[in-house]
Amino acid sequence: MAFEGLSSRLQEITRKIRGKARITENDLKEMLREVKLALLEADVNYKIVKGFINTIQEKALGQDVMKSLTPGQQVVKIVKDEMVELLGGIESKINFTPNPPTIIMLVGLQGSGKTTTAGKLANLLRKQGKKPLLVACDIYRPAAIQQLQVIGKQLNIPVYANETSKDVVKIARQGIDIAISKLNDVIILDTAGRLHIDEELMEELKNVKASTRPHEILLVVDSMTGQDAVNVSEKFNEALGIDGVVLTKLDGDTRGGAALSVKEVTGRPIKFAATGEKLNDIEVFSPERMTSRILGMGDVLSIIEKAEEALTEEDAERLEKQLNKKEFDLDDYLAQIRQIKKMGSFSSLLKMIPGMNKLKDVEIDDKEFIKIEAIICSMTKKEKKNTKLLNASRRQRIAKGSGTTVQDINKFIKSFETTQTMMKKMQNQKGGMLKKMMKNMDMNDLKNMKI
What we know:
Blueprint: H1 4-18, H2 25-41, H3 46-60, H4 63-66, H5 71-86, E1 102-107, H6 114-127, E2 132-137, H7 144-155, E3 159-160, H8 168-181, E4 186-191, H9 199-212, E5 216-222, H10 227-240, E6 244-248, H11 257-266, E7 270-274, E8 282-284, H12 287-294, H13 300-310, H14 313-324, H15 330-341, H16 346-351, H17 368-377, H18 381-385, H19 392-402, H20 406-427, H21 433-440, H22 443-447
Helix pairs in contact: 1-2, 1-5, 2-3, 3-5, 5-12, 6-7, 8-9, 10-11, 14-15, 15-17, 17-19, 19-20, 20-21
C-alpha cells in the first residue's frame, strides 16, 4: 500500500513524542531529523521536505506548545495539520458547468492508467447522479479504443469511438455533439499518452484543448513513479494548465512521495485517488483523511461512507439480526463476507481502522475469501449450523468439493470458532453494536484471524 514505509516510520516517531510530558529543543530536533529522513526515503521532493520541517519547527517551538499540559500531543497535532496542508488542505472536487455538458479532459503519460481512470471516474460521477459519456481519443496505443469500450460495457456507460478517423480533434468534437444529442451532462475525453513527454504529444493535446475548451483538465499520475511523477506534473501543467491531479496505483507497493510533492510543485490539487484494480476503486481525495491514514489515526468516515454506499437499509437490518442471533452460524458468516466485499477489499478496509496497522501479526489475504466461500458452499445445511459435526470424513468431502485441502478446512474452522466466541461476548453486553465490539475486542482474537 502507498505510504506504508512512511506511515510506519511516522507512526513510530509520533508515538514516542506523543507520550512526553515535557519536550526539550533537543527532543524536537531529534524528532524532526527522523521525520525529515522518513520523508526523503519516501521520495518526497527535497525542497518540500525542507519547508515542511522548518514550518513544524517554527510552530512547535512556540510558547503555547512548550507550556501546554500535553506538549507531545500538541507537536503531533502540528505535524498532522501541516501534512494536511501539504496535501492540499481541503477536498477539491470537479467544477461542473451550470450549462451542461461538463467536459473533462484526461491527460498523462502512457501507462499511468488513463483509460481505466476514465471508466472509474465515469462510474463515480454516475453514482452522483450524472449521465457520463466516454470518448475514445487515443488513436495510437494498440487496443486503447477496445479497452475503453470493454470498460464502458462492464459499467453500462456509453462510449463514443470513431475507429476510421485519425483526427483526434475531430473525434473529440464528434463526441461532444453526440453527448449533446443524447443529453449526457458529462463528457470524459480519454486522450493519448506517450512513454515520455515530447512536442508532438503536447501539440496534439493543446489542439484538443483549444477545440473542446474543457472545463477540467485532469492529469493522471502513476504514484509508483516517484520523483518522475513530480517532473511530469510540472511539464504538463506548464504546457496545458491542468486543473487537478488523479493519483493512480495508490494500492501498489510504493513510497508515496509523489502524492506529497505534486500539489506543492504544481499548485494544483489532487482531486481523485485510485486505490485498487476494481472499477469502483476510486475516491475523492481528502487531505485530512489521507493524513489520518498515514499517521495511523484511521479513517472511520471512509468506512462509513463505503458501508452506506454498498449496503441498503434492508441489508443493514438483516445484518443486525444476524449479529444478534444466539447462534452465529456459517450461513451468517458467509452473508457478512459477501456484504463487506461490496465495500471493497478486506485489507484496504482494515487499514482504515484506527490502530489496526500496528498489528503486524494480523494477516488478511483477500484471495483467501474466495476459498472460504467455496468451503462453506460445499457444506450441508446441518454442517453450516453446527461445525461440531465436521469429522475427518466430512472434512475430506468438503475439501474435495471446494478444491481445497483438509488443512485449509481446519484453519478456517478454527478462525470461525474464534469469531463465534467474539460474537457471544458482544451479545452478553448492553449498548450499541460498535461499543460492544470495541469493549470486547481482544488483540489475541485478531491475531488468530490468520487464514
